[in-house]
Protein: JmjC domain-containing protein
Amino acid sequence: MKSGGGRIIEKLWEEVRELSLGSDDTRINRLDSPPTPLQFLRDYVSQNKPCIISNAISHWPALSRWPHLPYLSRSLSTSLVSLHLTPNGRADSIVPLPDHNKDDDLSSSLCFASAHQNDCFRTEYSGLAADCDPDVPWATEALGCSPDAVNLWIGNHLSETSFHKDHYENLYAVVSGEKHFLLLPPTDVHRMYIRPYPAAQYSYSHETGEFSLEVEQPTRFVPWSSVDPFPSPETREAEMDKFPLYFRGPKPFQCTIKAGEVLYLPSMWFHHVRQSPGDDGCCTIAVNYWYDMQFDIKCAYFNFLQSIPYGSLPPETRPEGSPSQTDVSEMSEQEPDEQNGDQ
Structure:
């Protein structure tokens, strides 16, 4: 039998959907043209409500140039850029340690991250900067600031980003291919089963052509969502039993962002990202603009909700030396180059 607090939290999940996007609708609002700064601020930023905008980047030369790999090669021929290699395209996933078999043992799993989100488009990939706008003008005016970071994402059909949130207002522009998002509002934090996992990275051997996992030393714990929304058919029932608040709760919002479209992803929204190439078979390419969020009363509401121990990890199951609930909350507020984000 659920407690009164549990019923209230579950009611909150439904009310947020009904007030923001419609109680029985998992689609995101679409705009045929860019909003005015006032409309954007009033109808979306202030309401912490996502939307998809068409015809906002149709003037970018990148849309016609970047799907051609020879052009990218020429433009970046003198640039030193970072590449992040993984055996499966999942650069921020939770994976089991080779020496453990217990799925429910936190010490037997790792969350590893290797994606740069440190303003790389304006540094490593500056040879392509002229093909895009330096900011999103109507968002810059509405938010009263320039982007803190502009990042470039290049990947293929294997690239996938697990559920996470960012402390930024995110304008996400797809240049080539398609991005497939699952979105959950900040009020659904308990459904993410956020737990502390040891951080690790993949290491690639040129001699053997194989990957190995290397746990960071000293051990650093990262708060991360335990939920995989697309488990294999063999593990689906077990995953549903382990994470019932996610699988048996309200459906996440789903949207596909095509080349030439922009997603406004409000701060603190949880998102999972997959992608597919365009009709020309080119890799998926996107640019995102991170604007600093306002740490106002909405942030205080979220921190309060997160502190309620409904469906969260019981203290006795934390691995020795892992952070407390307070530490987990503090660790989640990282600088751009320390966060894990979209591929």
Summary: The two ends are 40 Å apart (CA to CA). The longest strand covers residues 194-204. The domain at 4-338 is CATH 2.60.120.10 (Jelly Rolls).
